[in-house]
Amino acid sequence: MDQVLGLRCTICGAEYELGQVEYICPKHGDDGILDVVYDYRLAGRRISPDRLAGDRAASIWRYLPLLPVQADQTRQLVHGTVLDSVGWTPLYPAPRLAAQLGLQHLWIKDDGREPTASFKDRASAIAIAKTRELGYEVVTTASTGNAAAALSGLCAAIDQANTIFVPRTAPQAKIAQLLVYGARVLLVNGTYDDAFELCLQAAPAFGWYNRNTAYNPYMSEGKKTVAFEVCEQLGWSAPDVVFVPVGDGCIIGGVHKGFKDLLALGWIDQMPRIMGVQAAGSAPLVDAWERGLEGWEMDPVEAHSVADSIVAGLPRDRIKALRAVRESGGSFIRVDDEAIVAAIPALAQGCGVFAEPAAAAAYAGLLQAMGQGLVSAAERVVVLATGSGLKDVATAIKSAGQPAIVEPDLADVRRAIG
Ligand SMILES: *Cc1c(COP(=O)(O)O)cnc(C)c1O
Ligand SMILES: [Zn+2]
Q1: Which residue's alpha carbon is nearest to atom 14 within ligand 1?
Q2: Which DSSP state fits 402?
């Protein structure tokens, strides 16, 4: 793993060697989120666009020299298992949606197609590789649902013990995934924040490896692979604008990191504008961005939305999220629940991708941005569809309306289609 030089604190810039600290910069309590620092010259000798063109691995593992894991051990661990199909999701051109919006180039990146049906597989796959590499017997996480489903599903693929903390109110489909995959599930009588704090205490108390978002520094590294894939799928050119749904801010921070890696390697020549989309009822990052606040100046707010995966009153990865938007010249955008729900059938009928509410929010954000004049017609736009619509069937049905009922009789069909 000599491609990794160390870990750098996102608050004070202090640098640590691997093994010197495990999760966070000890100077700031649990907020000292670390960023992984690479030796790009070394990585660039092991991987290149040319070599990737001949690599048949259809997963995040095609980028192993740019990931913070031991390459050979990880290759062996994932070989032939479900873990080997994380990532390399389709990037669909969406010409009909583009035409409706007055755009020339629009693509939808469909991460509902991940093994557990959400983007979180990208991060959980790295968490499992690190669990094995560091010699832990159990891995744990707190989650609003998808991160836990991803961890438990990928653990099941390789018989890895795991303990999950989710709020009792987590959506049924996501809890069903945990139980079916055989995780030890603890439903916390409290909020996601309560589950997060409990998990932080339990991990050291019981000797478990902690996957928590924006605490474990390696989760952004898994999430950055989406930026690699988008650029590779576009023939090694970066799009002009990328829309990302934002809750804790780990995905958007990872997207930013991925494009920065590619710029440092010289594989792309420009950073796209990164657009963070939040639900209006859970938009503390939009507020902070508008008011010019830094992540450490933000206070928790009461948060609620139909898009459960992006509800976060104090986004855990707020420092990286604000930097992603500010440093890329992007914007934060708020969309109300009505627009989110309407975006589900609009996206599905416009290109065949069925998204959960949080994922549809990114598309609603594009609509909003077009209205605000933030995107121009000739720009190349990518929308991240981060989770499958099957994660929340109740909202999907509300968004699309009820079907017609007919008697088993042709005349009634004639009446119904009339
Ligand atoms: C977790 C999640 C998000 C938001 O990611 P953050 O890292 O919390 O900002 C968006 N969409 C889906 C489907 C998710 O599961
Ligand atoms: Zn620090």
Answers
A1: 309
A2: P
Nearest to 356 by CA among 120, 167, 154: 120
User: Could you tell me if the CB of 148 is within 6 A of ligand 1?
Assistant: no
Low-confidence stretches of the chain (pLDDT beneath 70): none
Q: Retrieve residue 398's tokens.
A: 């509300």
pLDDT for 234-264, tens place per residue? 999 999 999 999 999 999 999 999 999 999 9
310 lines ligand 1 (CB under 6 A): yes
Q: Is the minimum distance from the CB of 122 to ligand 1 under 6 angstroms? A: no
Nearest-angstrom CA–CA distance, 114 and 109: 11
Cα–Cα distance list, 280 to 76, 149, 230, 300, 326 (Å): 44, 26, 28, 15, 20
Determine if the pTM surpasses 0.90: yes
- The enclosing H or E element of 9 equals strand 4-9
CA distance 51 to 346: 39
Amino acid identity of residue 92, one-letter, is Y
Give me the pLDDT at residue 385, please: 98
- Residue of 119, 244, 356 best suited for mutating to test ligand 1, as the one with most atoms within 8 Å of CB: 119
- Residue whose CB lies within 8 A of the most ligand 1 atoms, among 310, 318, 347, 356, for a mutation test: 310
